[in-house]
Design brief:
This protein is an alpha+beta fold and 215 residues long. It has a single domain, classed as 3-Layer(aba) Sandwich (Aminopeptidase), CATH 3.40.630.30. Helices cover 42% and strands 24% of the residues. It has a seven-stranded mixed β-sheet, with helices on both faces. A hairpin with a 2-residue loop joins β6 and β7. Pfam families: Acetyltransf_1.
């Protein structure tokens, strides 16, 4: 049974989040993604410097989400970051920001391209595509991660509860979308009312596309 940590506070990070916390948030997200089904399947973390490159890419993505005004939640114990959740608003960016975002992502990905398992990437590429349209104006849960030292304390569920509160509070959105290749995570999301709208097998990986509409 999880023991709830009452010292943890869930806060929304400012767009001007200090670099120290950006680095910490990126480390938590990168560590979680490295062990998650999709990332561990596509990238070879046994190769030298793979984790370093992946962490650099994740830091850049964290900065882009902050600068773009997406919802960026932190679980804090004092000033220490215990967990992170990032909600992509899927808003249209101004042209200059769109170009900058694309360039940052491309240059961040270049070092990782040599770490991709090409056979797995090709066999699974269609598993990440939805064949149906979701209701318009939905949010996407880009990341939800808890530091290993704080797992088992209900922090992930508190972050997810806050994610759903944000969705409910914004009447212009239809709901929340996410995908996962982790069976345990799928069950957790189903416990919060998410439904599998599609599931696709690609190579040796099964990807669950999930959606929860606003109540």
């Amino acid at each position: 049974m999880e023991k709830r940590n009452k010292e943890i506070k869930i806060v929304t990070a400012p767009q001007t989040l200090e670099e120290e916390k950006i680095v910490k948030c990126a480390e938590i997200v990168a560590d979680a993604f490295e062990r998650e089904g999709v990332t561990s399947y596509l990238f070879d973390f046994n190769k030298k410097n793979t984790r370093e490159y992946y962490l650099r890419q994740t830091r850049n993505l964290v900065r882009l989400h902050l600068e773009g005004g997406d919802f960026f939640l932190m679980a804090l114990k004092g000033e220490e970051v215990a967990g992170v959740a990032v909600i992509n608003k899927n808003e249209r960016l101004p042209f200059t920001k769109k170009i900058r975002s694309a360039l940052v992502q491309v240059f961040s990905l270049i070092p990782m391209l040599t770490r991709v398992n090409l056979k797995r990437a090709l066999s699974s590429r269609n598993a990440f595509r939805l064949s149906r349209e979701l209701p318009p104006d939905y949010y996407t849960l880009f990341a939800l991660a808890v530091h290993p030292h704080y797992q088992g304390q209900g922090i992930g569920k508190r972050l997810l509860s806050r994610v759903m509160e944000i969705t409910e509070d914004n009447s212009h959105v239809s709901g929340m979308y996410l995908f996962t290749a982790d069976e345990k995570n799928r069950l957790i999301y189903e416990g919060f009312g998410f439904e599998v709208v599609e599931e696709h097998q690609g190579g040796d990986i099964r990807v669950y596309h999930m959606f929860k509409g606003r109540n």
